[in-house]
Each structure stands twice: as structure tokens, then as C-alpha cells.
């Protein structure tokens, strides 16, 4: 059973349809007890860093405990960005700080937002990226993550700069792209996540 956190900032229908397509049971909930007992947690996200963190505050502790217990966790799009410590988008707002680093606005000279299909280059072995190197994924974002430690970068894409497309550390995973909107390759990532054991 996959548990999708409903914190009023995620594209719940889109991500749930992805799990539906692979035949995986899921629940969408804002119930702390259900989230606390989840085996696999998913944090989707659309919108602004600051408002997302305001909505996530009641869930901060249970998310931290889930990750500390090394249970599988997947952040998607804004769900990747809020895993960082901070973002230029919302100064003085503390992220979940589960990945050390920050978010920056995409640089001048590239089209903003980064919207459309881009090829994934896997740069580190990660269970969620098994079998998807050089596949194309769908991106929609204006900010990108800058981790303190390059060793947690699992995938990048070339958008005039190397954009961090995926992070991986123990059983904590994230993607800047939307796997649920990325066809067969995206569904493969969701299947990979489902198959990760605690």
C-alpha cells in the first residue's frame, strides 16, 4: 500500500493515477496516524515553496521519523524541492532539510519555466532509476535544487545547465520531473519505488 500525503499542495489526482496504472493500491490521506504507519510515503507537490511548507508543518515530525526509520519515501517536483533546507523562492522559510542544500531560480539564458520533455542521465546507481537511463521525462519547474553533496545526485538532465533531476540517499528518493506524466519510463520509476523494501 502506497500512502500519498494530502497537504493541499500536491497534484493528487495525477500521482494517484500513476499508481493506479501499475495496479498498486494507494491511499490519499492527511491522517497523521495513517501516515505514521505507512510503509511507502509519497510527497507530490505543485505551487510555491513557502505555502507548501506552511501546509507541511503539521506533517514535519512524522515525515522525519519515516525517513529516519529508513522507510521508502518519494518526493515529486515541488516535493523534491521542499526536502531541501531552503529556497530562494521563499526566504526565511525552513524546508524539511532531509537533503542538505537549497533551491535556486533557474539561471538567466534558459527558458523559464523548464517545461516539457528532457532526457535523464543517470549518474549514480539508485533503485528507483533502474532501467530508465537515457529515457525522456516530463518537467515543469522554475526552481532547481543545489545539494551540498554531489554524491546524492542520482540523475541529471541537460537544459543548458545540468539540472538535478533526481536525488537518492538510502531509502529517501526524489524527482524534479513528473514520473506519473512520463509514459512507460515514468511508470517504471513508480514500480521501482513500490518494489523497494524497508
TrEMBL record:
Heterodimer of HisH and HisF. The active site is at residues 77, 178, 180. CDD domains: GATase1_IGP_Synthase (cd01748). Residues 4-194 form the Glutamine amidotransferase domain. This is Imidazole glycerol phosphate synthase subunit HisH. Pathway: Amino-acid biosynthesis; L-histidine biosynthesis; L-histidine from 5-phospho-alpha-D-ribose 1-diphosphate: step 5/9. Its main location: cytoplasm. One of its GO terms (cellular component) is cytoplasm. The keyword Cytoplasm applies. GO terms for biological process: L-histidine biosynthetic process. IGPS catalyzes the conversion of PRFAR and glutamine to IGP, AICAR and glutamate. The HisH subunit catalyzes the hydrolysis of glutamine to glutamate and ammonia as part of the synthesis of IGP and AICAR. The resulting ammonia molecule is channeled to the active site of HisF. One of its GO terms (molecular function) is imidazoleglycerol-phosphate synthase activity. Its EC number is 4.3.2.10, 3.5.1.2. It catalyses: 5-[(5-phospho-1-deoxy-D-ribulos-1-ylimino)methylamino]-1-(5-phospho-beta-D-ribosyl)imidazole-4-carboxamide + L-glutamine = D-erythro-1-(imidazol-4-yl)glycerol 3-phosphate + 5-amino-1-(5-phospho-beta-D-ribosyl)imidazole-4-carboxamide + L-glutamate + H(+); L-glutamine + H2O = L-glutamate + NH4(+). It is found in: Cytoplasm.
